[in-house]
Amino acid sequence: MIPRRGEEDRDPRAPLESGRHLGYHRPPFQSQSEDEPASSPGSPPMSTPFPIIYFGNDWHAENRTSSHHIAERLAKKHPLLYVDSPGLRAPRASGRDMKKLWKKLGQTASLPRKVGEQLWHMVLPQFPFRRLPFAKVLNREIGALLIQRAARHLGMEKPVIWFTVPHPGTLAGHLGERFSVYYCVDDYSALPTVDKEQIRAVDQQLTEKADLVFVSALTLLDAKKEMNKNLVYSPHGVDVEHFGRAATAELPVAERARGLNHPVIGFFGLLEAWIDLDLLHFLAKSRPSWTFLIVGRVAVDVSQLEKLGNFVFVGPQPYPSLPSWAKAFDVAIYPGGKNEFVRNANPLKIREYLATGKPVVSVHSREVERFAEVVRIAHSNEDFLREIDDALANDTTEAQDTRRAYVSKMSWDARTAEVLTRVEEGMAEKR
Fold this sequence. Notes:
By secondary structure, the protein is of the alpha/beta class. It has 15 helices and 16 strands. A hairpin with a 2-residue loop joins strand 5 (about 115) and strand 6. The relative contact order is 0.13.
């Protein structure tokens, strides 16, 4: 590994180094500085398009993740087959899970469906009970047959295979690929209800086997640095123009948010087990006149929050509508809990909040610390409350402009261009 400066003396916005560059006679690859574009007008053109088989989470998921953002942009330059890889956890007996399971099973025999100019979608069947002896072999053999059939149908020869989730990683080496990428954005074993031991094992196997590994958080870089010499820190991008619409006069506030009592303290995303419900309860009980607007699917018991009377849960909303919801926020919050998932996460919503210009208050993490110039970071419940109070009292137009400017060059387009460059270099080195 190339030595990195200690966190204590590094500018949070400075470029960050990869684990090891791939043998080129130039400085080691660095993840693009978060305040510089990924390419310049004089950059060399991309190489001849190559096919990509991309293993991601649910294409039709209620929230759009880095998996979706990167796939859509890769498909602008390369023909891409997006493979839904059923959940990391075993399905529960809930109506929602059963409905999704039957829908997925019904799609597994179908050929890929075109969903964009160079973008196709299919579902990969996965037997979810991975501890059973035959499950791994069954998943690999059936998965390889179906994906090879789809690749032949689309004329995809010698593809690049790209994993954004670890559990289909057993297919690496079985698809006639020319190059393999693992784009790891979370500590998947820390997700609630997953088989932690099994997911940790497949994550490590894929990390070790992939030709190139990207990680979105510095903690993941540290955890994986001995597993693969070709390891690159690549933080999330943001859809700058999309979320910037929240600051425009012409965009109306979402209809269901127009009559809310202000101030509105807003959150969008999945309300899951890694969110600190005790913190939310403390905030709402301390300030009963505030409205807490939660935009996204609720996957935990929020009955204690509902009893307080100042929470509004509107459920999942279409991605295009998120700026109109954010426009209703007076302050945006990230109330992550003190757990391994949050510690190893690079919360995408921080960048999305900043792109709206809204004040942002967040719990502390190593990745959030990189935004300390523009994000109010709290270390306790009382601290979180004080930061919201101060943000409500002292926000200015100039501060809003500063927040938007801070993320203006962190676009998904720039991040994808940077990642593609690294992949092309790795492919050239491997030949």
